[in-house]
Write a structure and sequence with these properties.
By secondary structure, this protein is mostly helical. The protein is built from nine helices and four strands. Among the domains are: about 70 residues, no CATH class; about 45 residues. It is found in: Nucleus, Nucleolus. It holds the Pfam family Nop16.
Length: about 220
């Protein structure tokens, strides 16, 4: 008599895949799914035959990157990448390089080899730390690269910018429970948010003073 493990082993190899009705149902669900979620102008101009990056490049929404991770297809008409700027570190001599001294006839008479110590500025306390590192770049500026078609916005970009300009922020309200909790804190501590944050009996969620101050402002209880 077969045990339960043997019965499971006998049934495990008999599965032949999804049925035709299950496959048809899956295809119907995929066809009903929208191509892209977003404003109507974005859905109208979205080309399902292109990749996501190609669509963003065609619509003028992709940034210009100095280097593309993974590379790009050379035959892709939308694969436009800004040329990388030459590094300033190559302008100065490095260790292993040498200066050639020639005479009036052009013959080499001397070679002056450079070393790392020749380019490190010294101080009364010795060599500078991190002297070989380049100057720090502005992180905020590096996070905002220009768009691919800077200076010639597409109609889609203009429509999206108009929608963003007309958008009004949603006003937030405190829930009834949060409002009652804040009222209890105000009755006990007045406007001292630091004391509210240190009240272990009432501040059960361990809210910080900043969080309590923002909650009071949202609830209209800020003085």
């Amino acid at each position: 008599m077969a045990n339960p493990r043997q019965r499971r082993k006998a049934r495990s190899g008999k599965w032949s895949g999804a049925t035709k009705s299950a496959k048809r149902s899956q295809q119907r669900r995929l066809k009903r799914a929208p191509t892209v979620m977003g404003p109507e102008v974005l859905r109208e101009n979205w080309d399902p035959k292109l990749t996501v990056r190609q669509n963003y490049a065609k619509l003028g929404l992709v940034p210009t990157l100095a280097s593309q991770s993974g590379g790009l297809d050379r035959n892709d008409p939308y694969a436009q990448v800004a040329p990388a700027e030459p590094s300033s570190s190559t302008d100065r001599p490095r260790k292993g390089m040498a200066r050639v001294i020639r005479d009036e006839s052009g013959q080499i008479v001397d070679l002056i080899e450079y070393s790392e110590e020749d380019h490190v500025e010294t101080t009364p306390w010795g060599k500078q730390l991190n002297a070989d590192e380049e100057e720090p770049v502005d992180q905020a500026a590096s996070l905002l690269p220009p768009r691919l078609n800077e200076g010639r916005d597409t109609d889609t970009v203009q429509a999206l910018e108009k929608i963003a300009a007309e958008h009004q922020p949603v006003e937030r309200f405190a829930s009834a429970g949060e409002h009652a909790w804040l009222v209890d804190l105000v009755k006990a501590h007045g406007s001292d948010v630091d004391s509210m944050a240190q009240d272990l009996r009432r501040n059960v969620w361990q809210k910080t003073p900043g969080e309590i101050r923002r909650a009071l402002k949202k609830a209209g209880l800020a003085t």
